[in-house]
Design goal:
There is one protein chain. The chain is an alpha/beta fold and about 325 residues long. The protein has two domains: about 130 residues, Nucleotidyltransferase, domain 5 (2-Layer Sandwich); about 170 residues, ATPase, nucleotide binding domain (Nucleotidyltransferase, domain 5, 2-Layer Sandwich). The chain has eleven helices and ten strands. Strand 9, helix 9 and strand 10 form a beta-alpha-beta unit. The longest helix has 27 residues. The chain is globular and about 65 Å long. The chain starts with a strand and ends in a 20-residue tail after the last helix.
């Protein structure tokens, strides 16, 4: 089954064609990072307008790369939510138009479920049940993937997502957007023991996250140093901050996996490309005798291949939308 998928939830305009949920035929991505960098973050209106401008070209590139036409496609899939409403509407409108024109099924996909499904593309041997840590700019969740379309949300963030905290700390340190890769790079030459930043919600069996206090502690430390005229190394701040984030993510994930008796652990979302997190999680999984899975960096950030992968399993359970499909910027997982 060949599914053409569209992803436009934020600032990537992406089109992919995926076969049977596991094989990527083509995966085309147009990133708006260069456009939004001068603003220090994504501007929703600008993102939406760029999706309108670029989606037809990305679609043509995908079909040309695959050597296919719309007649060769068995179904169309699109990110319905969550995300920026204007950006989502561009993708949903395009997918509905193509599904109508080709008289083929339309499959709505949840963005976070798509991130989880990116692991199926990278690891054909991976099957549920497993525990997945979802870490991105807008989400930090521990998800028990009980089956391909059945999830239990075990933990969520009370405030800032991990990726959001990375971007805010990076901005204060003077690093360009996006901040996550900049922090990760700076941390490699910094001292992670230079500052003892807090780890919130460390109580036993607490699977939730909170990074707002950590972010504030970093900002207060920097401000205090500046007021006293004391020198500090940005690399030390980055390394200490990153260690605090990673300690929390790894500890909660491993504790949760042990409690549930799960020996397969996956990561998904943009922050799962962080090299420090990957090393720490791999070490912890090895000690626990658990198998660890994560996608290649190109499949960690927003892309349409993950939407096509998830759509295949949604289709198997009858998740087909009509032409009245609406974008939902606050869509809950399991409600695509």
């Amino acid at each position: 089954m060949k599914i053409l998928a569209i992803e436009s939830s934020c600032d990537e305009t992406a089109v992919a064609i995926v076969e049977d949920g596991r094989h990527i035929i083509t995966n085309q991505i147009y990133s708006q990072i260069a456009i939004h960098k001068k603003f220090g973050g994504v501007v929703p209106e600008i993102a939406s307008r760029n999706h309108v401008d670029k989606l037809p070209f990305v679609l043509d590139n995908a079909l040309d790369d695959a050597g296919m036409t719309l007649a060769d496609i068995d179904a169309f899939a699109v990110t319905r939510g969550p995300g920026l409403i204007g950006a989502l509407l561009v993708g949903v409108s395009a997918a509905k138009a193509m599904a109508y024109a080709a008289d083929k099924p339309l499959i709505p996909v949840h963005h976070i479920e798509g991130h989880i499904a990116a692991n199926y593309l990278e690891h054909p041997e991976l099957t549920p049940p497993f525990l997945c840590l979802v870490v991105s700019g807008g989400h930090t969740n521990l998800v028990h993937v009980k089956d391909y379309t059945q999830y239990d949300i075990l933990g969520s963030t009370y405030d800032d997502a991990a990726g959001e905290a990375y971007d805010k700390v990076a901005r204060v340190l003077g690093f360009p957007y996006p901040g996550g890769p900049q922090i990760d790079a700076a941390a490699k030459t910094g001292n992670p023991d230079a500052f003892d930043f807090p780890r919130a919600l460390s109580e036993k069996d607490n699977d939730d996250f909170s990074f707002s206090g950590l972010k504030s502690a970093v900002l207060n430390t920097i401000n205090a140093k500046k007021m006293k005229g004391e020198a500090y190394r940005k690399e030390d701040i980055a390394a200490s901050f990153q260690r605090a984030v990673i300690d929390v993510l790894v500890e909660k994930t491993m504790h949760c996996a042990k409690r549930l008796g799960l020996t397969k652990i996956a990561m998904a979302g943009g922050v799962s490309a962080n090299e420090g997190l990957r090393r720490a999680m791999a070490s912890a999984a090895d000690k626990a005798g658990a198998a660890l899975y994560y996608p290649s960096p190109i499949l960690c950030t927003d892309n349409a291949a993950m939407i096509g992968a998830m759509a295949f399993y949604d289709y198997q359970t009858g998740k087909i939308a009509g032409l009245d499909l609406a974008a939902d910027p606050s869509l809950a997982i399991g409600e695509s």
